[in-house]
């Protein structure tokens, strides 16, 4: 799950980024409204965390322009505690949820997962493909009731494939799901993670569609 944080408070932004990465999100961060508006419009994200009180651009204006351009990415807005007016205006402008500062990282993660599930038409945090189950909230994978131990990157790779089970997922999509924008991306690592998953799930679990990407088969 790839998210964007738009927050000018660098300490808070760093705490959010580190905390969400521990929750197995892939995170990009923008310190200005201008950078955040550009990334939100040009890059793919599963969700965006947007502070309304940005110094260079009004967060509400950024949100309105995204929605006017039919940009449907779920947006969680951050507001000052007790600022009910900002919450109401933000929701009316197209925000999907709000959170007042200060907050707990675990709550941010839970709200983001809920927004992403709704965007994908999922009521449950558990993804299923045949007998394979992946619990996004608990970061656990089971097959036939038996736990399968995965590394963080293997988990993210499998989660991306399970969100599109039966469909082809390109290497570019997997790279976006695994790595932040400022990370030194290497497509060869995707092949490594897929090979590891095949050893743990079965050689036929993930099909290589040459020239296109990978497809998860029903387990």
UniProtKB/TrEMBL annotation:
Keywords: DNA-binding, Phosphoprotein. Residues 124-218 form the OmpR/PhoB-type domain. The modification 4-aspartylphosphate is found at residue 51. It holds the Pfam family Trans_reg_C. Residues 2-116 form the Response regulatory domain. Residues 124-218 bind DNA. CDD domains: trans_reg_C. This is Response regulator transcription factor. It comes from Methylocapsa polymorpha.
